[in-house]
Amino acid sequence: MESQKYAIVDIETTGHSPANGDRMIQIAIVIMNDWTVEKTFTTFIHPGKPIPIYIQDLTNITDEDVQEALPFEAHAHTIYELMQDAIFVAHNADFDLSFLQSEFERAGLPKWRGKKIDTVELAKIVFPTSLGYKLGDLAMDLNIPLQHAHRADDDAYACALVLKKCWEELLALPQQTLEQLHKHSFRLKSNLSHLFFDALQVKRSSSEESNNIVYFKDLALKKYEKASLKIANDKLHYPIANGEKASLLKKAFSQFEERQKQFEMMDLIWEKLNNHNEVVIEASTGIGKTLGYLLPSIIYAKQTGRKVCISTYTSHLLEQLLSNEIPKMEKIIGESINAVLLKGMHHYIDLERFSQIIRMKNISYDETLTMLQVLIWLTKTETGDLEELNVSGGGALFLDKLRKSPDSTTKENHSIDYYQRALEVSESADLIVTNHAMLIADLNRKVPIFQNIGGYIIDEAHQFVQAAEIRDESILTYANWKYVFGQIGLSSDGQLFSSIRSYAIKTKMVPLQLINDLEKVFEQLIELFDRSMNNIAHHMKMQTIKNKFDTKRVAFLNELFQDQDEAIHQLPVKIQQWIDLAQNVGFKIESDVQQLSLEHVSILEQWKYWIREFKIKANEWDEIFLNPNPHFTTWVEMDQRNIPGSIRIYKKPIDVKDTVNQLFNEVRKNNSIVWTSGTMTVPNKQRYIAEQLGIRKETPVHLFFADKEYYRGAKAYIVSDMPDIQGVSQHDYVESVALAVTRTVRATDGRCFVLFTSQEMLKKTVELIQESELLQDYMLFAQGVTPGSRMRLLKSFQKFNHSVLFGTNSFWEGVDVPGDSLSAVIIVRLPFTAPEEPTFKAKSIALQQQGKNAFTELSLPDAIIRFKQGFGRLIRTSSDKGAFIILDRRIETKSYGKEFIQALPPISIEKLPLQDMVLELEHWYNS
Fold it and tell me: What is the CATH classification number for the domain harbouring 186?
């Protein structure tokens, strides 16, 4: 095989658009031949214009760096020659190559022609479980040196090493996997088929075959080796004395700081586990809550042989427990811990289904990319948990088709049924680690999974309320129903039904009359659905709205109709007719299974998949429209700019006590339950979360606070000259917020969170700040404005020294930014839930009907919990330093304000005008 030349290129620019005058400021090219670096070229380039401040911040390339540099035209021929006869490689190749092509054209050179490889696309396939595919993320994952990210020379060399690592990974794959990669790679955006073919040629010429691979049909899988468990240490005992605890913990933590409250928490949990009692624990940041429950739980499990189940809300904490905390605990106790992560069936891949789907034709780019990721992942995964994969866009929808379900028609044996494997491993575990949703789902299982459990630790327990609400909620969206209809299609659409009809005509295995009846019922079904949605839209438009500029409309379902719409009752009957006919068609095709081609087997599998989806849809419709329940609230949301396409209908429980009690009432007889979180209580209402969870009044609530020294780096400020939020227009208040934010950001040199309760106010504030250009030297990231997920915004915020993050609800909690990356948290408004928010409104009405005050019983404590969570973003370690700034003057002018202040840890709280606060901040941060 001939040696291939690669030109690995990275450029830094003043912006994204050469057509708008953006220019290059640095370029680097690494020439690699036979996987060895032969030559490098790097130079600064004078852009002919000042470099924007944010680009200087990102790249550390200043105007001084390029002052003596030549323009691109001076280097154009050299660069063009270096790229000749090479495959162009770059991280995000479309951007680099298109920018270069524009510069070549400007320099009077012809368009460069050749193959290209995008290492983003390649790395997504070859390393399907990487946390991120930015060059810096990959370099960290692959131990590739990258000292100065966003400098072309370092980036190009790192990109070359990423390419080489990908090649080495490809060579380690089974031949069968390489053949499938090559077969499906022609739909990709860059020329990866060339690379896959080269790897396949090398593999075919080698006689080596891994002993670590087994095969299921045409899929290569990592061989499963059941881990042998070490024998427990009979001498293992719980350290009663604090000195014993400290001595034990120093084995894993060289810088261990003894915390009295943490030891008290350990003792309390140890007592409750052994006495099979229930307890509620609030443990503030700085206590070391996770270690506080892990040590007694593990020793209890080892001593008694009874499993302990640890449940939490976020996947982040699940990963942290397994990858960080459990290994530390093994050091502490001196023996291995069998901790098993257990998730719901739908988290695991159905191999039978995947083996059918990979034979599909005419699939999209996202589906192709994800398919290739799965093929490589199967050679490495031990769990079969689809959450291990990092997919984007349509890839998530593709994974949904691969998920295991209760009615999966699988022919897998237990050795390669990942879900069954997880259940078997959990039987001999010390700890079962799971999430709240999985635990609650035991209520729906014919055979409960969480049996023979000695004790339950419910971490992030305040989120158990939300998890229970989500478990019982139903959501019906117009767009999703239309998507499902579209996947089936009519005979003229070229979709799945068209393929089924063609098969029926060709083989005569299915009577044509049956096929015609099926299509007719399908058309009637769609007509009934459209009529129902249009009727809902009509009634929604009749509703009065407070703000004529607000395009969103919300209404409780029972307020929309005086009488139930006839079409709403007819539709589930029609769905069942379609399901019956569709199953009959499937049975007739399946009876001919021995004669089916691989393509028709795939079509049949898809047909059965969508029948299952229609059953789910039928249940969804019944839940929303035909099963009224006084303990639930149902409402409709619609954007009048998109009717009926924007219709979304929600049904959520008002109260989750019954769900929680149904789950734990039997457990309480012989097991312990520990409910713990950093926010379980509010001043004057210590049992707020406990009451929402239906925990019995006799169950004690214990509070553990960190020492005052832990918060020595924190200060709180109430800005005393902000306007009264209820006494001025929103525009005036936004102007005051924008001024306070800009002055605070400049005083702290950025690194601020600005937390809102309204997306509309967030957007207007950000727009005003951008128009003023007062923060033009800072990177502004705004939830709902800047594209990307919450985690993507957070990572972007942390990447820049001069940055500000504007967030709403989901940024008030569950976001960790330790150290110097966060200097201040600005609270724009006290986090009261909007009175018109449907679930909140329904809960308020229910409380009023019981003769209770909805504000003191629900609105105020709910806001205080979120307020405490907001403060929790600021101080994550004892060395953190930060300001907690409150712009809402209601905290001092309203009688309830003191309860918010009481909810804060023992820190300095000052009331100052904005000017004085800014001066204090400047002095504090510069001292």
Answer: 3.30.420.10
